[in-house]
Amino acid sequence: MSYAGLLETVGRINDVLNAYSILNWDARVMMPPGGSETRGKQLATLAVIAQSMIVSDDMRRQLDAAERETAGLAEGSVERGMVAQVREAVGYHSRIPAELLRQKTELGSVGQEIWATARANSDFKSFAPTLEKMVEINRQIAEAIGYKAHPYDALMYRFEPGETAASLTVLFDKLKAAIIPLVRAIGQKQQPRADFLERSYPEAAQLGFAVDMAKVIGYDFNRGRLDTTVHPFEVSFTRNDVRITTRFNKSHMPMSLFGALHEAGHGLYEQNVDPAYTRTPFATDLVGLYAVGGVSFGAHESQSRLWENHVGRSPEFWAQHFPAIRAAYPEQLKDVDEAAFVRAINRSRPSLIRVEADELTYDLHIMLRVDIERQLVEGSLKVKDLPEAWNAKIKEYLGLDVPNDAMGVLQDVHWSSGQIGTFCNYTIGNVMAGQLYAKARETPAIASAAKAGNFAPLRAWLTENILQHGRRYTRDELLVRSTGRALDPAPYIAYLTSKYSEIYGPDRKGN
Amino acid sequence: MSYAGLLETVGRINDVLNAYSILNWDARVMMPPGGSETRGKQLATLAVIAQSMIVSDDMRRQLDAAERETAGLAEGSVERGMVAQVREAVGYHSRIPAELLRQKTELGSVGQEIWATARANSDFKSFAPTLEKMVEINRQIAEAIGYKAHPYDALMYRFEPGETAASLTVLFDKLKAAIIPLVRAIGQKQQPRADFLERSYPEAAQLGFAVDMAKVIGYDFNRGRLDTTVHPFEVSFTRNDVRITTRFNKSHMPMSLFGALHEAGHGLYEQNVDPAYTRTPFATDLVGLYAVGGVSFGAHESQSRLWENHVGRSPEFWAQHFPAIRAAYPEQLKDVDEAAFVRAINRSRPSLIRVEADELTYDLHIMLRVDIERQLVEGSLKVKDLPEAWNAKIKEYLGLDVPNDAMGVLQDVHWSSGQIGTFCNYTIGNVMAGQLYAKARETPAIASAAKAGNFAPLRAWLTENILQHGRRYTRDELLVRSTGRALDPAPYIAYLTSKYSEIYGPDRKGN
Known about the structure:
The structure is a homodimer. Chain A is mainly alpha-helical. In chain A, 61% of the residues lie in helices and 3% in strands. Chain A has a domain at 2-150. Chain A is built from 20 helices and 3 strands. The first copy, chain A, is globular.
């Protein structure tokens, strides 16, 4: 009964972490303005309760007993895997003082409000003191956790276990060597026409089409819902309740469409974790204190980017769905054919805002953020010097001048909410998506179905190889099992090179 | 620091109880169908955590120390009041096994689904086993809590402290003696015209008008929101976030209007509790494990019924707002004058469904439920015999035959969610509303403003005398302080008698 008792305790921790996520969702989607002050305290209390349950004496006793009870089982068995994950989380959280966690959670809740005002006024100075506190709390947490080479490694651990400042340098150097020349080459070419994406698209029609496309890729509305928020996101409260949001720009239709595909891609991950793992360590990030089935933030992002970009921007997808989008927007797309539409949604050019960046330049936005975070955490860059450093990086990577901090260093919510060390996940997601997509398409049935616009076999392959396993295997274990290799940027680079050569090839004129 | 530490602990319990309420609101308003199974576990876990925080050794130590620290303060001081409430809750919860609480919460979550299906099919038998379990758990809880005269007293305590089976018998006898003859007398009279309330009223217009009327009586949308649900309710997550719902029937407009006024009345209570009491025992029902500022369910109901009925159905209110409702529904009300409208919304006749009952017959629905609950809890009535007992009571009190169980014993959600002992609150609310309203109108400025359709002075009086105090004083202490008497049905009976004599008086013909 010790193992069963341990699982019941983990189930209750999962309940508390799901409650945390529900309060967070509510704060972002439903809460009236007056509620924010006390909501921050509620979130902090739940986080500290979850942590205290992990490090409690009861938990340690149950864990010791469960280890003894499962010692005879095969290595790699579900039971031993679950117990090992609890052991790791107990060790991790024993090192982090509860007071630090409470401070971080409360500051993260208040910080988002301060940041939102600062961004609205493009006033970095009003946000700087909060950011300084946040960096300091994160440095203290890094010291508490401990690290071998760099404090940034300790912070990244809860988002992308296995990656380090050093490993990212290797990965990013390869990506930059491929992407920057592609971006420069495209800069010389004529851009395809995309004016029709900026016509007036009524919100109700956009919402309807976003729902349709989420269903098309397999997102289950019986266990989910789609709402509107300023910043789109996905969050789950067990696989039974997986919610997504998108946002609408009346005169930029792709925002809602690709926002919905992206978040529905995240949603597919959670909705397809093995139901037997519900409320267990394989569907609970006990280290990150987050009730999630995806095994790392990068692995999660691989699913959202795969459905948004590899599928959602592919000619095959639109060969199937272009009639539907033209039916949804008959006036707006009346002078547009399928080929022009696909070129328009794949247009690439350097821009200032990460969340609006195209597929090719997106990783440059990520890499500059990781550079900066690393320097902030190690102390070689001061918060007050951040805008200058930011603007210099944008110039270096994208060749652009930043007109104001709202369009620059103040654009992202992450730091204000207390998250440092999580930007790399986006690029790791892109790389992993490229790797998975290339491998899946080696299966003839998947490739030929995809060519006919049918991605159900692809989804089945992803469920089989990635989604169903939840947190049982590490990200690289999943990659090795499914593709034969750990994280490897070669397929992603090949994909970008081929795709953009096709769109901007020597024969391609603007149309 | 012990007193401050105790308050911080209570603040965290308040956070957990608010999280519980948010999960409950979400389950009723937002959750996709798939989410219900795991949501029940999440709710149960939070309830048990809150209880375990109350009975923890830490809490007992803090409480002992806080009692010593505040012993020198005046009796009746805020500090001693808060400490005393914590002491009481520790004693109460020490008697209830956590396992019983978990079972009740989980069964309450699942039970609502079973009940909803049973009601949809008018199939009492499919709900009976769940109800049997629920009665049994409640009996066990009553035994654990302990009681002097009747197990029902123990169950009512968390909803309406001070009331007992015996005290309700006295109260109800007085009410029945007054109400039943009034109902019979009206049965002989001609009914006023009310057909125009059943015309087609578009939902969007109903929603807009419901929001306007909630604002008119003072509900603050900056700290609230109004949604649509099958069963209207109010719930708060501190005074900063107080939410209400209503429901719409296209061909019965009063449902949304009076539903909104009723729930906004509840909302006013929570929104006007002294902000200094936020996260303290004076805004946390530590006995009932409910983050609420209102001092009893009956006191809460006094506010909703006061605004719904005494104000919202009064000629004075419509002297002010009839032009607005006619502007909202120009077609539907074009052949209706103010006097006819007021008579129509005050029409009384026996009916089967409690939540659709008029003001005069409403208490009869309550009293029969209390009779039945009392018998269920003492064991003199078996669950299997419930429909028969129900139908007999409806015949006795209202003179009606019940055509099926959906219109009878299956109509209310309460029992399925685990609540037994809470129906009396509605009638106590009516009685208390009558008492407060009569007293407030003895102040000339309040009466003359009300006659001009201005109820702001009334709201100020209620805030001063009732709302701001939160849970500092008991219900009867509040009544004695504000009206000079504990709960007393005389003003309510006088109000009903006068009102219905006016509407159905000897000179009144139907129009």
